[in-house]
Amino acid sequence: MAATPSVPEVRRTRFARRLPAELSELGGPDHGHVELPLHLAWSGLSRFDLDQPRLRMSCYRIVLAEGQQDDLVRYLNRELLVAMWPVLRTLISRDIRDVWENAFHELAPHTRAAA
Fold it and tell me: Is the overall model pTM greater than 0.85, yes or no?
């Protein structure tokens, strides 16, 4: 009889399935306003000014937590994600953080410290 996976294992598997193959696929805007669709912004704010650091961080937190692969590619920008990651990683769930850092060496804490 197979062991039932833990809740973190299930969550990590779900987040891993959504990942793009490479960070270079993240072609979202790097400034201006973004209007998130209802399936992402169901809990409140849907329009984000990416030129405002707090709003940009909020937008990325929502997309990382709720977005499907096509949302990640459409709304996240590779350069912004990498630049914001040291702070953003402290604001997202451990499951999301672990999946992204294990998949993309550019986000791993030891890689950034050496750069």
Answer: yes
